[in-house]
Fold this sequence. Notes:
- The chain is an all-alpha fold.
- It is built from 11 helices and 2 strands.
- It has helices spanning about 5-20, 40-50, 55-65, 75-80, 100-110, 160-165, 185-190, 195-210, 215-225, 235-250, 255-265; strands spanning about 95, 275.
- Helix 1 (about 5-20) crosses helix 2 and helix 10 crosses helix 11.
Amino acid sequence: GNPFVSRVAVNRIWHHLFGRGIVETVDNFGATSKPPTHPELLDYLASQIMDRGWSVKDMIRQVALSSTYRQSSKPNPASAKVDPNNTLLHRMPIRRLQGEVIRDQLLAVSGRIDRRQFGKGPMVHITPFMRNNRSPSGSGPIDGDGRRSIYVEVRRNHLEPMLSAFDKPTPFTTMGRRVVSNSPAQPLIMLNNEFVHQQAVIWADALLKNSNANTDELVSYAYRQAFGREPEAWEAGVAVEFLKQQRKAVGGESLKQPLADFCHTLFNVKEFVFVN
């Protein structure tokens, strides 16, 4: 095996798991790159991947089972003084989900996701604003028939606004490393995008069908689906009060619209798109 290639492979795996490589750039090990943060670790893992038959799965298992990978992302004041930029990984970096994962998560939480594999993907949804004299006739469904993002058609002149806002690379050139930004367009997309609103309504309908419409239970069930945990006491209290106020604002006894508003609010919680 080639030691240089093994270092590149390890660095890419490290970048995928931690959001940063042992060498800052994914592929640049030359004179213009910064030196590795952990050169001995890079050499050790490079030798490991060669000795174990170049198994990427085995290398991911090694790193994912390490104490470094299993750290909390909660800041440690004492360690932060020594390593303020977390270069030495004294804690797990907080990572934002990729655009495709966020879209798939919206579909999964609402229950609309289609998990089947293979087959022809749906046409991209083309809004009136996106349409021009080079647009094809017709348009795909706004939710892509529930198919996962990997199956949805990509058209160079009709890029999905939500995925673009969350830094999906444009299909014009190759890209070794994605940009991970934090821009005002991202919360605005989550607030205003028609697809996000649609999934909130679908999720609210599913919650009402699978419960006895008790607000406390609805809030608890929604938190488990969205975040994999029970709401804290203050969160539950605020959520129940929000549902009461929304029900009063719309008038009537139906919980459908208030619950859809609540579901939309949960989609906009930072915990929904950031991994701690």
